[in-house]
Amino acid sequence: ELVMTQSPATLSVSPGERATLSCRASQSVSSNLAWYQQKPGQAPRLLIYGASTRATGIPARFSGSGSGTEFTLTISSLQSEDFAVYYCQQYNNWPRAFGQGTRLEIK
Amino acid sequence: EVQLVESGGGLVQPGGSLRLSCAASGLTFSTYAMSWVRQAPGKGLEWVSALSGSGGSTYYADSVKGRFTISRDNSKNTLYLQINSLRAEDTAVYYCAKSAMPDVWGKGTTVTVSS
User: Fold this and answer.
1) Cα dihedral A51, B27, B38, A40 sign
2) Counting CB atoms within 10 angstroms of each CB, which of A11, A68, B40, B88 has the fewest?
3) Residue B90 φ then ψ, to 5°
4) Chain-centre distance of CA B103, in angstroms?
5) What is the nearest CA distance from B105 to chain A, expressed in angstroms?
């Protein structure tokens, strides 16, 4: 079964700085990788699909890259509303799989 | 605007059953695959199940295979998840989501399994 591994588990960054989150697949998922943001008490929100395409309404400071087994989500200049938990998910294979999440916290 | 509204959650004893529903609006429901994703308290997201627009193809996580059944009624724009033989580890918020790569999510319904 395909496993998604995110790192780090927690990332502490100051507002205005850049944040880089990683996601690794145990086997190739091509570019079939999505990123989600989840805030406390809320449903997840789709940020990125196809590894690098921003979903509708997502600010340009969010960018995704990678293919195969290594993926990165970059937030170029952190705003206060960006502090949340981020998940990657592969949709290349069944069953689908999420990473365990990266908590982005204010430094 | 696409809206998904889950219902049917509640408190149930171990070994019991529940049927969750997800009412969809703002989309041509039958043309989209749909998914269920759950989140245990304080934990991450866990993909549970999905099915095709016609309902002819279904997919399950190994952790729920044989106990959960996903289905849909396209005439009612509604997705279902029948959950049997409930265990404490099934306690979670259950989200309904549009597509096999979830792009729109409902707010979730809470299932608590406890005696």
Assistant:
1) positive
2) B88
3) -85, -5
4) 15
5) 7
Nearest-CA distance B60 → chain A (Å): 7
Q: Mind spelling out the 3-state secondary structure of chain A?
A: CCCEEEECCEEEECCCCCEEEEEEECCCCCCCEEEEEECCCCCCEEEEECCCEECCCCCCCEEEEEECCEEEEEECCCCHHHCCEEEEEECCCCCCEECCCEEEEEC
**Residue A55 burial (CB < 10 Å; 0-12/13-18/19+)?**
middle
Question: Which of A29, A96, A98, A100 should one mutate to test binding to chain B, selecting the residue with the greatest count of B CBs within 10 A?
Answer: A96
Q: Whole-angstrom Cα distance, residue B24 to residue B73?
A: 11
How does residue B1 score in pLDDT terms, banded at 50, 70 and 90? Answer: very high
pLDDT by residue (tens digit) across B50-75?
Answer: 999 999 999 999 999 999 999 999 99
The shares of helix, strand and coil residues in chain A, as percent rounded to the nearest 5, are 5, 50, 50
User: What average pLDDT does range A75-103 have in this prediction?
Assistant: 97
List the structure tokens of A48.
């990125």
The 10 Å CB-count burial string (b at 16+, else e) for A6-40 is beeeebebeeeeebebbbbbeeebebbbbbbbbee
Write the pLDDT tens digit of every residue in A68-83. Answer: 999 999 999 999 999 9
Looking at residue A69, its amino acid is T
